[in-house]
Amino acid sequence: MLSTKSRRLRILLTAIAFVPSLPAGQLARPGEIDPTGRIYTKIVARVGENPKDLRAIEKLRIYVVTANGKRVTLSTSSSGIATTWLAPETYRIVTPDPVEWQGRLLSWDLIRRVRPASAVIELTLTNVKKPEPVKPPTR
Fold first, then answer.
1. pLDDT tens per residue, range 76-97
2. Beta pairing, strands 39-47 & 120-123
3. Apex CA 111: angle with CA 56 and CA 117, to 5°?
4. What is the pTM of this model?
5. Structural contact between residues 128 and 107, judged by C-beta atoms closer than 8 angstroms
């Protein structure tokens, strides 16, 4: 006859065997809405003249600012992507630190409305603020 401890262990192992497995961690897709109504938003920062040869801008600091001045600070990954959950409203997307690219300093200052259908915001050469030339160092 099995001891009480052995029986409990056997019941526990049997129960675990019949529990359906769930994915370890699901990632949201841009445009998905969470239970509070926020939208999973993706910001992509890449530069290049040819769409096939775009260079990801990593560690780019991005401010996402609401109309009433609330700010979220994001930073891009090595693939030039930053993600967050945002309420559906209009935001100002600002990069406070210019990025050097081909002798020019690039920065962005955009107004974008976040909705499920427009949850990917791209920072590219087509929407960059007026690029400034890199200034030579002073002696």
1. 999 999 999 999 999 999 999 9
2. parallel
3. 75
4. 0.76
5. yes
